[in-house]
Amino acid sequence: MRTHSVRTWKSAEHLPREDQLAWKIARVAADPVAVEAEVADMIINRIIDNAAVAAASLARRPVASARSQAMAHPFSPGATVFGMTTDQRVSPEWAAWANGVAVRELDFHDTFLAADYSHPADNIPPVLAVAQHTGLSGADLIRGLAAAYEIQVNLVRGICLHQHKIDHIAHLGPSAAAGIGTLLNLPVETIYQAVQQALHTTTTTRQSRKGEISSWKAYAPAFAGKMAIEAVDRVMRGEGAPSPAWEGEDGFIAYLLSGPSAVYHVPLPEHSEPKRAILDTYTKEHSAEYQSQALIDLARRMATKIGDLAAIESIVIHTSHHTHYVIGTGAGDPQKMDPKASRETLDHSIMYIFAVALEDGRWHHVDSYSPERASRPSTVALWHKISTTEDPEWTRRYHAHDPNKKAFGGRVVVTLRDGRVVEDELALADAHPNGARPFKRPDYIRKFMELSEGVVAPTEQQRFLEVAQSLQELKPEALVGLNLSVNPDQLGSHRPMGIFDFTSNGRTP
């Protein structure tokens, strides 16, 4: 790996293209280095993981809305949409939109945390949609996804967005564009322009994850994937993009990040160096914000030590800056303590999550978020006894460069009414690669079977798993098999109508 310094350049200065971050990203994407077997296996795991969480979300309103929008754009050859049959194809950018929302809705797929946050499997829907539409093979898809993961993970290592209230999809747009460029074997010049165009169109604020969090939290990554496809299509036609996107005098660093004097350091593979970044990412065992994964496991462990939960006087979670200020009491969001809050908001309240995990000894992607569960009097009482505080040591461990020293958990101090104190700590979720029970292929399959049970027919479950696990050998015509077809009654009762549903005579169906 080589670390590249990235800063603002005045327009009067000359910054050669080959010295620009977008060009360096494009060179990595265009490098035809072989994908290692371990990386290919992990890509298969994440495709299975995405399908699992998508299956569990198919009947939810935001997913139904995105699917309805996509189905209004039929196209041939096109790409498939989760829930529909493989012969129902739509334009690839709309397939990426619908599938991206389905994958993201439950906040239950993979994660990478460093200088910023990310869910790198958000790259899979747009890259897969383009691969299906353009008639490429499973091996081509693996190459594209390895590149997309590599770019997003390394942008997340080097550039902090949340400090400036920029949403993390600003790293996803460029990575998806780069991955599509790799998939299509595009030249460096084309990928360079597409990466910049994707950055320019996917820079949004973090209000999507603040206050009253709406369904846009699930839509935002899908939007980035859709924009990435459109960016690549546009530059393939010979159009350019704002340049230099990161380093320009009026560009990303100068006015949206730390300003003209700031210098960022982004690591990227050298020429012919394998793309292995996916191996540093991790998935979720529980359907909740990643910083809550270890704390859910810790709550289950502590419950037996505490005994009578009604005897609790207070609970203080000593944790990292991010956990405290984004999903803890440091956020200052009263919605995080509100029993009537949306699922998206409860997912970003470690106080709520820890209370439910203590009481139930488990976490469920539906039951743990139901309005009835959130309004249970004992839960509300316990919930409001919980606070968070930033501990510099946990913040340091959160930002550690050595993956063996990184930590995303915390130390919990429970004070009982009789004065006794029960405390414990956990650095990593059990399912983390360095945790107590690292996720392996059987765990991904188990997660898929559990989340798709009752939604996807058993024969369809097995068919999908066979196709996914044969990814490296899949011929172009077989890529459509990376889809899940379900009976219409599993798609929910939501049939949202919008502009795209108007017919030629001006009436909705």
Automatic annotation (TrEMBL):
Claim: Endoplasmic reticulum is one of the keywords in the record: no
Occurrences of domain MmgE/PrpD N-terminal (ranges): 20-261
Alphabetical list of InterPro entries matching this protein: MmgE/PrpD_sf, MmgE/PrpD_sf_1, MmgE/PrpD_sf_2, MmgE_PrpD, MmgE_PrpD_C, MmgE_PrpD_N
Residue runs in coiled coils: none
Domain MmgE/PrpD C-terminal: 286-472
Top-level taxon in the UniProt lineage: Bacteria
Keywords in alphabetical order: Lyase
Pfam families: MmgE_PrpD_C, MmgE_PrpD_N
GO molecular function, one term: lyase activity
Assembly: Monomer.
Protein family per UniProt: Belongs to the PrpD family.
Name of the protein in question: 2-methylcitrate dehydratase
Species of provenance: Pseudovibrio exalbescens
